[in-house]
Amino acid sequence: MRDNWITPADRLSALPPYVFARLDELKARAREQGLDLIDLGMGNPDGMAPRPVIEAATAAFENPLVHGYPPFEGTGDFRDAIARWYKRCYSVDLDPDSEALPLLGSKEGLTHLALAYVNPGDVVLVPSPAYPAHFRGPMIAGAEIATMELNAAQDWLIDLSRIPEEQARRAKILYFNYPNNPTTATAPREFFEEIVKFARHYEILLVHDLCYAELAFDGYQPTSLLEIPGAKEIGVEFHTLSKTYNMAGWRVGFVVGNAQVIQGLRTLKTNLDYGIFSAIQAAAQTALQLPDEYVQRAQRRYQERRDFVIAGLGELGWSVAPTKATMYLWIPCSVGMSSTDFALDLLQTTGVVVTPGNAFGEAGEGYVRVSLIADCDRLGEAINRLKQAGIRYDYSTVPSH
Question: Closest Cα partner for 390 from 353, 336, 350, 348?
Fold first, then answer.
């Protein structure tokens, strides 16, 4: 029998290595060597879900009906909670039966949406840098990826005027995400109005990832795509309970918006999975109904960490403006180093793990993402290790443009 007679599909060979899986390998090797790692790489919140959420899941376990297959479209109670949450937070009316669909986390939904709507060769507009699921899902579906490069000079906002006319006319879907992962950028309401107008003109499906809606600071209130008149006609919006409610491992999120698009995704998912365990849906429903204090507590926690790390990096030469939202900082690498080399150097010399910016696309080169997923004592230890290793940032050596 010949070697390698079972070969993966071409769609797998087209995918670059998933950087977080590669980081896990390097972290495991470092731990084997006795390094005490401070892992600020993945956006993996520390701590437990709120007590009422845990209690709701525990209570649901006692219901024999919960242990069977859940409804494909999610439980009615969870979908109702999603619709009420949108009404309370954004004054957006949703039909819970047709305009809301629970998901096994937003990553699953973002990727499967591409499989449901992208034919090989379809043009999909994706920012760079971007959360990997925004471009990997379309790649798996065989899309022609048209990259919209973001940059610091434009505050990491998509410049729609730079999209070539022919590309815009061919585009089927545009993925975007504000507050943004990885750059932490936020977009004003005027931007959302502009992108809805753009998408309606060119008949492009807008896919907005609103994963960091509640992690906003200093009085800032993020905009929902669905707040914009006409957006529901050409758009859907994804959300997750992973970040705000410390439910990353529970795998629960949802998509809302255009009923036709959601029905298409639902049709695909009925052939792929049986939905979310009903006890987890009961817990998620409880999370969305928690008093504002729970969200405010999460905001205070991440804002305190933001301020602490920005101050510490300032002592090492970095000038980082306070972020308005997300659980990250997006900082430039030491001059002359690629983002991969800088991240590896940090890991090997200090045991501090960050994510290289090129993991989010070529335009992320030159930056690393720092996740604020440890308490200030641990973050202070990370800053001290950088000091002891002599890792600093010198703006005087940055080339002028």
Answer: 350
Rounded CA-CA distance 144/119 in Å is 10
Contact indicator for 171, 180 with CB cutoff of 8 Å: no
CATH 3.40.640.10 spans which residues of the chain?
A: 51-288
Please name the residue that has the structure tokens 């490069």: 149
In the block, which residue shows the tokens 């992208």? 118
| Side-chain half-sphere exposure of 165, counting CA atoms within 13 A | 0
- Answer whether 288's CB lies under 8 Å from 81's CB: yes
Question: Which CATH fold would you assign to the domain 51-288?
Answer: Aspartate Aminotransferase; domain 2 (3.40.640)
CATH of domain 10-48+293-397: 3.90.1150.10
Which residue in the block uniquely carries the two structure tokens 């070529």?
Answer: 362
Specify the pTM: 0.94
The 3-state DSSP composition of the chain as helix, strand, coil percent (nearest 5) reads: 45, 15, 40
* AA identity, residue 222: P
Task: Quote the crossing angle between the two packed helices 339-350 and 376-388, to the nearest 10°.
Answer: 100
Give whole-number Cα distances, 232 to 101, 207, 224, 228, 300, in Å: 15, 11, 11, 8, 32
User: Hey, what are 279's tokens?
Assistant: 């006890």
pLDDT in tens, the chain (401 residues): 566 767 778 887 777 766 666 677 777 777 777 778 899 998 889 989 999 999 999 999 999 999 999 998 999 999 999 999 999 999 999 999 999 999 999 999 999 999 999 999 999 999 999 999 999 999 999 999 999 999 999 999 999 999 999 999 999 999 999 999 999 999 999 999 999 999 999 999 999 999 999 999 999 999 999 999 999 999 999 999 999 999 999 999 999 999 999 999 999 999 999 999 999 999 999 999 999 999 999 999 999 999 999 999 999 999 999 999 999 999 999 878 899 999 988 998 999 999 999 999 999 999 999 999 999 999 999 999 999 999 999 766 655 54
- Under a CB-based contact definition with an 8 Å cutoff, are residues 398 and 392 in contact? no
Instruction: Please state the φ and ψ torsions of residue 207, each to the nearest 5 degrees.
Output: -120, 105
Tokens of 192: 């959302």
Q: 83 near 255, Cβ under 8 Å?
A: no
Domain with CATH 3.90.1150.10 in the chain: 10-48+293-397
